[in-house]
Each structure stands twice: as structure tokens, then as C-alpha cells.
Write a structure and sequence with these properties.
single chain; mainly alpha; 0% strand
């Protein structure tokens, strides 16, 4: 083997070692990230459920108020219809 082949072989082996080190580091970071995501989900889940529960209660309350308002409007229209003075027909 001549010197050029040995240099290229050393460069190739060094590059392979660097890539293996990067891959091992990358896999460790992915594992760390996935465990952080799982922990984050565990911490956020109760808050999310509370927000969803509050939103559902607000929706139900809004629907109840809407139906009550419609009932009051209907009762008010019936009451106003009975209290209206009769107008003369225009000629």
C-alpha cells in the first residue's frame, strides 16, 4: 500500500468513528426528548382535563342562559301583545 491509500483509509476510519459518535449522541438525545415529552404530557394532562371540564360547564351554562332568555322573550312578547292599545286603521 502506498502512502496515499493509507491516508485515505485513516480519513475514512476517522470519519466513520465521528459518524458513530454523532449517531450515539443523537439516539441519546432522542431518548431524552421522548422521556421529556412523556413527562410533559403527564404534567399537562390534569390541567388540560380541567380546562376541558370548565369549557363544558361554560357551554352548558351558556345554553341554559340562552334558553332562559328565549323563554323570557317569548313571555314578554305574549304579555306585550295583550297590553297593546288598538290603533285606528289609517285611511
Amino acid at each position: 500500500m502506498n502512502i496515499v491509500a493509507v491516508v485515505w483509509l485513516v480519513i475514512g476510519v476517522a470519519t466513520l468513528l465521528v459518524l458513530v459518535i454523532f449517531m450515539v449522541s443523537f439516539v441519546k438525545q432522542v431518548q431524552r426528548l421522548s422521556s421529556s415529552v412523556v413527562q410533559f404530557q403527564r404534567e399537562v394532562q390534569p390541567v388540560l382535563e380541567s380546562i376541558q371540564r370548565d369549557a363544558q360547564e361554560a357551554q352548558e351554562h351558556s345554553e341554559k342562559l340562552q334558553s332562559e332568555a328565549e323563554a323570557l322573550r317569548a313571555a314578554g312578547q305574549v304579555e306585550q301583545a295583550g297590553n297593546r292599545p288598538r290603533t285606528r286603521a289609517r285611511r
